UniProtKB/TrEMBL annotation:
Cross-referenced Gene3D superfamilies: Hotdog Thioesterase (3.10.129.10)
Family listed: Belongs to the enoyl-CoA hydratase/isomerase family.
Region of interest called Disordered, as start-end residue ranges on this chain: 127-157
Organism: Mycolicibacterium madagascariense
Name of the protein this chain belongs to: MaoC family dehydratase
Coiled coil: none
Every MaoC-like domain range: 14-130
Any Pfam family the entry gives: MaoC_dehydratas
Length: 157
């Protein structure tokens, strides 16, 4: 039997780059739902007529918080499914180019650091550098994320 899971602390190695597939094509419904659920009334996400009149994009932009959430979400099955204790923080978040309805977001993650927890035996801190690219290969989002990850339990594969 094979059970899908993320990686234990011991399995992470700094410098390793993971490409997460498949990507996620972002729809108008995704953007409008996320934007309204999070009470973000920014017209650039919701009002097509308003957005079409504004240079330089002349169309609605995908909510950058949705972009960030999806970027991290794309990494979960491969890296942290069932092994993460929690996120400790995000830094260096940037959105060099916007996503638009119909764009596909692809994610990659590099492990940039890891260390054992000083206060929580059985856990360690892993730092990830996430990069999101659209279907053209343009970088649309980057973020550094610190996580608390479980060490391999006794008897686990």
């Amino acid at each position: 039997m094979v059970v899908q899971r993320g990686l234990w602390f011991e399995e992470f190695e700094p410098g390793v780059l993971y490409q997460h597939r498949p990507g996620r094509t972002i729809t108008e419904a995704d953007n409008v739902l996320f934007t309204t659920l999070t009470m973000n009334t920014q017209a650039l996400h919701l009002d097509a007529a308003f957005s079409e009149a504004l240079p330089p994009f002349h169309q609605r932009l995908v909510n950058s918080m949705f972009t960030l959430s999806t970027l991290v979400g794309l990494s979960v099955a491969q890296l942290t499914q069932g092994t993460i204790v929690g996120n400790l923080g995000f830094s260096d978040v940037a959105f060099p180019k916007p996503l638009f309805h119909g764009d596909t977001l692809y994610a990659e993650t590099e492990v940039t650091d890891k260390r054992e927890s000083k206060s929580r035996p059985g856990e360690g801190i892993v730092t990830f550098a996430h990069t999101g690219r659209n279907q053209h290969g343009d970088v649309v989002a980057t973020a550094s994320r610190k996580t608390m990850v479980r060490k391999r339990p006794e008897g686990a594969e």
